[in-house]
């Protein structure tokens, strides 16, 4: 009896306290911006996005200091599967009060999440995915495509290869949205420059580890350039096995259309040397990128410098929170499209990409860089991998607004 | 140029050869699985992780201790085999009396944990491992360039498969093992230490996976996922060959490598699926597998 009475008292006290704490939590939530970092935490793209992206987002928040509102960061693993990514995005928006989703590598997942962010009128800042469709047919008033895209890679690397005499191509393409987009965009450049595409082969994704069969097919087409429209472990295995089969020694050129610095690290300079690639961020590019790298590196997994995707997450979070501060938390939370519109109205500037802007179709503009991977003898230390061949201005690097077929800018 | 089914003959020969090379990996991995299943009745889902551990152990020996590929070829199967012995002794032996499913769940769980630990330590992109200088270069076969290293893989895998088959089918030790599978208590009554024999068999099966890992290190990206990509295919190979059939798993391994290789020419998009289609057909027509006893 005694116990029950005490129990009753406790329950009553809790009931009395509950509405107060609940409304307190609601007030707290109303003054909090919640950012969800959605990417590959366990698969092939973990190193180039993964936990490092979240660390870069937290770095941006720390650097902004006191904003007058709270910022909370959550992260999740989409396992490179559109169904998993969609479920997480819906749960975040509907139940967990997430205001903005960041990163989302893997184009198939990225396109799925873009639709959900638009439907729920939230903010979607994509750094990790490549498909240029995100600012083309699938563009949305809620999306900003931050770091790079297939059109830019195709023009940068593809254009450079054609200029260097590589006028006949064979593609080894990962069989999903990203690979198809990258092959299409590159093939357009090759043909526009007077080159020919002799053939292509679509490799199952994920799950292909042996590329020798495809490399031999590519070789028997007698193409001068083998275009690798794949990423991550697929690209690493392709390059490794091309070297093994002596393709490069016999004059066939490999165009790694999407190569990240983590891939070069994995290949080792002995195998990767001479590879030409396009990125928008390299940690050792200039004083500002070096300063950013120094600030964030101690927290990164394995102390690796940030990749361009992770740097993109830093830059996107920084700009988004600045926009929220200008327009007010309530307005930013009420409409994701309004927040993105505000972001487009403000010029961007940060240590990762320098000065830039966001175009009406959601394309973030900044320069792109054509790099060549150093020879082992040229490298002065760990992660010293690239030498700069050419800087492409922001206007030249990305697809012209008129060519994208983005429905929201045509009207 | 001569053509077969619209494909230039040289290209076709090249693909057959490449299929055989991939088949060598399937054969070596499914061999280890078949040995373990045949004698322990355990469906060893840690096999992929153990293959990966073999590749990483080779990398560690080279970069941390300075021991080259040839030493790794001998040391790694022993080291990783020893971890298998430990695992059997600590955990797996508690499950022999239970349903297959428990062994499957335990080994699958351990595989996931091992993969996660390696991913945390080494990241997901993988590590470089060069082909040993003695085996670099390529032979010009007329219809294709065959890297010396791939030729070595096929030859070495064939020797290992043959040796394993001889040990199990033709030696006294193998006879004990086979007898113990049929009736363990009877064999024990003859004064043979059956539990120890079973433990060492598991270690040997794991050692085979690790050896395949060392062979794979110079060709594939040495990354924590490398085993899980391969293991599902290898299980299909074992099912097609007949669970527990040693010769069956070897022949099916090489055979399916070739079938997959040809699919990569005629219908590349389906190359990841073809083995499972064959598996479904075999299961419908011969549920015990091509070489299994019903």
Question: Notable features of this structure?
Answer:
heterodimer; A: 411 residues; alpha/beta; Rossmann fold; 5-stranded parallel beta sheet; B: 294 residues; mainly alpha; ABC transporter involved in vitamin B12 uptake, BtuC; two-stranded antiparallel ribbon; 4 strands
- The CATH architecture of the largest domain in chain A can be given as 3-Layer(aba) Sandwich
CATH homologous superfamily classification of the largest domain in chain A: Response regulator
Q: Which stretches of chain B are low in confidence, meaning pLDDT under 50 for 5 or more residues running? A: none
Query: What name does the CATH topology of chain B carry?
Result: ABC transporter involved in vitamin B12 uptake, BtuC
Low-pLDDT stretches of chain A are 8-21
Strand order of the largest sheet of chain A: 2-1-3-4-5
Query: What CATH first level of the largest domain in chain A would be assigned?
Result: Alpha Beta
Give the percentage of residues in beta strands of chain B.
Answer: under 5%
Gyration radius of chain B, rounded: 19 Å
Approximately how much beta-strand content do the residues of chain A carry? Answer: 15-25%
**Sheet having the most strands of chain B:** 2 strands, antiparallel
Q: What's the total helix number of chain B?
A: 11
Number of helices of chain A: 16
Gap from first CA to last CA of chain A: 74 Å
- The largest beta-sheet of chain B arranges its strands as 1-2
Gross geometry of chain A? globular
């Amino acid at each position: 009896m005694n116990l029950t009475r005490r129990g009753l008292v406790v329950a009553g006290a809790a009931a009395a306290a509950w509405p107060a704490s609940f409304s307190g939590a609601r007030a707290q939530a109303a003054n909090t911006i919640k950012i969800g970092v959605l990417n590959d935490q366990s698969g092939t793209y973990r190193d180039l996005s993964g936990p490092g992206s979240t660390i870069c987002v937290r770095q941006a928040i720390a650097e902004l200091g006191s904003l007058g509102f709270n910022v909370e960061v959550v992260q999740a693993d989409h396992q490179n599967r559109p169904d998993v990514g969609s479920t997480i995005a819906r749960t975040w928006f509907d139940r967990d009060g997430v205001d903005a989703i960041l990163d989302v590598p893997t184009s198939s997942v990225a396109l799925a999440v873009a639709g959900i962010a638009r439907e729920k009128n939230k903010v979607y800042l994509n750094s990790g995915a490549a498909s240029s469709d995100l600012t083309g047919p699938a563009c949305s008033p809620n999306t900003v495509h931050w770091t790079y895209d297939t059109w830019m890679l195709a023009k940068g690397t593809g254009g450079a290869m054609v200029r260097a005499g590589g006028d006949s191509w064979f593609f080894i393409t990962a069989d999903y949205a990203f690979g198809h987009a990258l092959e299409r965009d590159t093939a357009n450049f090759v043909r526009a420059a007077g080159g020919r595409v002799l053939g292509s082969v679509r490799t199952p994704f994920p799950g292909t580890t042996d590329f020798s069969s495809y490399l031999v097919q590519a070789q028997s087409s007698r193409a001068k350039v083998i275009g690798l429209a794949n990423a991550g472990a697929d690209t690493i295995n392709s390059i490794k096995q091309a070297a093994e089969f002596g393709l490069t020694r016999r004059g066939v050129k490999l165009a790694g259309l999407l190569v990240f610095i983590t891939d070069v690290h994995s290949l080792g300079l002995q195998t990767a040397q001479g590879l030409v690639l396009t990125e928008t961020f390299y940690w050792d590019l200039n004083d500002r990128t070096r300063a950013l790298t120094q600030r964030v590196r101690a927290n990164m997994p394995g102390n690796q410098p940030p990749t361009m995707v992770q740097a993109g997450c830093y830059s996107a979070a920084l700009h988004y929170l600045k926009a929220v501060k200008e327009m007010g938390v309530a307005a930013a939370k009420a409409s994701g499209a309004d927040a993105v519109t505000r972001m487009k109205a403000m010029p961007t500037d940060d240590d990762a990409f320098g000065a830039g802007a966001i175009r009406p179709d959601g394309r973030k503009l900044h320069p792109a860089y054509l790099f060549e991977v150093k020879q082992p003898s040229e490298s002065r230390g760990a992660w010293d991998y690239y030498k700069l061949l050419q800087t492409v201005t922001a206007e030249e690097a990305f697809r012209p607004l008129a060519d994208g077929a983005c429905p929201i800018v045509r009207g | 140029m001569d053509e077969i089914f619209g494909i230039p003959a040289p290209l076709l020969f090249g693909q057959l050869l490449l299929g055989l090379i991939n088949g060598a990996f399937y054969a070596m991995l499914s061999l280890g699985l078949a040995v373990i299943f045949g004698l322990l009745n355990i469906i060893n889902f840690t096999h992929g992780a153990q293959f990966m551990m073999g590749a990483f152990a080779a990398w560690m020996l080279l970069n941390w201790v300075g021991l080259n590929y040839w030493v790794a070829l001998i040391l790694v199967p022993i080291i990783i085999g020893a971890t298998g012995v430990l695992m059997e002794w600590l955990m797996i032996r508690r499950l022999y009396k239970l349903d297959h499913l428990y062994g499957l769940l335990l080994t699958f769980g351990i595989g996931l944990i091992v993969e996660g630990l390696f991913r945390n330590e080494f990241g997901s992109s993988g590590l470089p491992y060069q082909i040993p200088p003695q085996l670099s270069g390529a032979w010009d076969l007329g219809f294709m360039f065959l890297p010396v290293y791939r030729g070595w893989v096929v030859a070495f895998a064939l020797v290992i498969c043959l040796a394993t088959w001889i040990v199990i089918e033709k030696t006294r030790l193998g006879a004990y093992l086979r007898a113990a599978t049929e009736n363990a208590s009877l064999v024990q009554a003859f004064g043979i230490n059956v539990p120890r024999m079973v433990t060492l068999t598991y270690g040997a099966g794991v050692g085979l996976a690790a050896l395949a890992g060392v062979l794979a290190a110079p060709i594939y990206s040495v990354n924590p996922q490398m085993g899980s990509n391969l293991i599902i295919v290898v299980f299909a190979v074992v099912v097609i060959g007949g669970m527990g059939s040693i010769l069956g798993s070897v022949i099916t391994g090489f055979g399916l490598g070739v079938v997959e290789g040809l699919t990569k020419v005629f219908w590349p998009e389906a190359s990841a699926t073809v083995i499972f289609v064959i598996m479904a057909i075999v299961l419908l027509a011969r549920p015990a597998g091509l070489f299994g006893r019903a």
